[in-house]
Amino acid sequence: MKDPIGTTGLILNEPFLWEIGKKGRSGFSLPKSDVPASPLDADLVGKGPDFPDLSEIDVVRHYTHLSSWNFGVDTGMYPLGSCTMKYNPKTNERQASLPGFAQAHPLLPPELAQGVLEIMFDLQAYLSEITGLPAVSLQPAAGAHGELTGMLLFYAFHHKNQEKRTKILIPDTAHGTNPASASLCGFKSIPVASNEMGILAPKDVADLMDEDTAGIMVTNPNTLGLFEAHIKEISDIVHAKGGLVYADGANMNAVMGIVDMTDLGVDVLHLNLHKTFSTPHGGGGPGSGPVCVTKALEPFLPVPRVIRVGDRFELSHDYPESIGKVHAFYGNFGIQIRAYSYILSMGAQLKKASQLAVLNANYLKERLRDTFYLPYDRPCMHECVFTDKYQQNDKVSTLDIAKRLIDYGYHPPTVYFPLVVSGALMMEPTETEAKENLDHFIDALQQIAQEAKENPSLLLQAPVKTKVRRLDETTAARKPCLAG
Ligand SMILES: Cc1ncc(COP(=O)(O)O)c(C=O)c1O
Question: What's the number of CA atoms in the CB half-sphere (13 Å) around residue 471?
């Protein structure tokens, strides 16, 4: 039966714009025409799209209602591990919307875009300072795109040395984009098993590393939220066989101002500006995944490069060994400027942001350790991974726990990843959550664990307070129903 007061659970029902529209309504008024009317081309009459006639307030209310159905980091805690949803300070938005930046056309000649180029140049310098790697390209549009760029750099480096290396070592904890990027570039991914501590053992790398292997891709801290403690030794093993070390720096938010990547033997690293440097992401929107490299790999970076000549900034194509362009124009400038604003407003506090992110994750881990099973019982970095092992006794799974969290007003954590952990529940609180927020979240999870024991069917039916109840995710993915 249709809900008579227009609510289903927490959320208002919202008709389609076609249902709201009434013939003759309009969202604009034009001054009376002072030129003779000219009839529409006969081919166009009656053939336009079937748009409803709407007033301005109809449209504003409709989209405002819809926007309030979204869960975002501005609405509540979003503990999505590995996908780092941290708060995006509003000052970054303000800087990005300044007309001089927002309206700068990418085809402007450099002499008319000095301010924009200076910001890009400075951002490169800041990212270089933060990672320890001397040269940076801002072009890649996301983490995965940074990985692909990094793999192209590996290829170019070995090609210059007249070597054809075909394989890349990738830990079994890696984000799925790592092997995908390697294979897009023509490399064969060779998995390296993590050990009982959740990290790589140098011997396992040494056993696999050979002269056909282009290098290794290591995420550090890794996706179990653990620091790869043997990374320097591993880098030495890879370098000794002529390979290169790629660091997936998507988790750099745990180690900013603390770790110099060159000390770890890293040759190429990508950053996810939309994770570490607080720029918005999600929903497939624009991201940014700059790559930072050693001097030896600098000649291969994408062109054009933003360089300084005296007190002017220029776009240089003069890098004959470059892998070429990886993005239209110069990358997603709107995202770069938000990261620039974040870095400038944080300054040396970036280190504190990392320390607090680590502290918050360890606080969650310690307070929930008796509630959920901890597969790797060690201090964690920015995120911690539990499993549903205790709840399985009551036939409740990770998915049920995640769905029930929605009823408590939280976005679920990452589930079933990393793949090496069965029933993983991966939580990343980020540095931006205050202790009270963490305590509320912990209370909710403890209550859910109690419900699992006392009334498991509550969890099996969850979410119960949302407009759409539990989806058949397989059918939703295979037959998406986008309307109606
Ligand atoms: C460890 C890791 N590597 C790579 C990526 C890929 O980044 P993106 O989603 O920007 O392509 C992610 C994404 O969250 C990640 O967590």
Answer: 12
Nearest CA to ligand 1 atom 13: 83
DSSP 331: B
Inter-residue contact 225 to 385 (CB < 8 Å) = yes
Among 418, 405, 384, 386, which residue's Cα sits nearest to residue 452?
405
pLDDT at 4: 46
Closest-lying ligand 1 atom to the alpha carbon of residue 272: 10
Residue 94: name the closest of 342, 408, 395, 407 by CA. 342
- What is the model's pLDDT at position 467? 80
Distance 144 CA to ligand 1 centre (A): 6
Residue 245 bridge partners (DSSP): 216
Q: What is the pLDDT of residues 28-64, one digit of tens each?
A: 888 999 999 998 888 888 777 889 999 999 999 999 9
Whether 7 shows a pLDDT value over 70: the answer reads no
Report, as an integer, the average pLDDT of 230-257. 98
Which DSSP letter does residue 190 get? E
For the CA of 248, the closest atom of ligand 1 is 3
Give the residue, out of 85, 177, 178, with the most ligand 1 atoms within 8 A of its beta carbon, to mutate for a pocket test. Answer: 177
pTM, two decimal places: 0.91
Q: Kindly list the distances between the CA atom of residue 402 and the CA atoms of 175, 382, 389, in Å, as whole numbers in the listed order.
A: 21, 20, 14
Mutate to test the pocket of ligand 1, among 175, 219, 226, 269 (most ligand atoms within 8 A of CB): 175
Residues 6+ apart with CB under 8 A from 331: 137, 138, 139, 140, 141, 288, 290
Residue nearest to atom 5 of ligand 1 (CA): 143
Structure tokens at 329: 């124009």
Residues with CB under 6 A from ligand 1: 82-83, 142-144, 175, 177, 219, 223, 248, 250-251, 272, 287, 289
- The pLDDT value given to residue 301: 98
Mean pLDDT value of segment 462-469: 88
Taking only the tens place, the pLDDT of each residue in 65-124 is 888 888 889 999 999 999 889 999 999 999 999 999 999 999 999 999 999 999 999 999
Using the structure block, give the residue that is written with the tokens 């941290």. Answer: 86
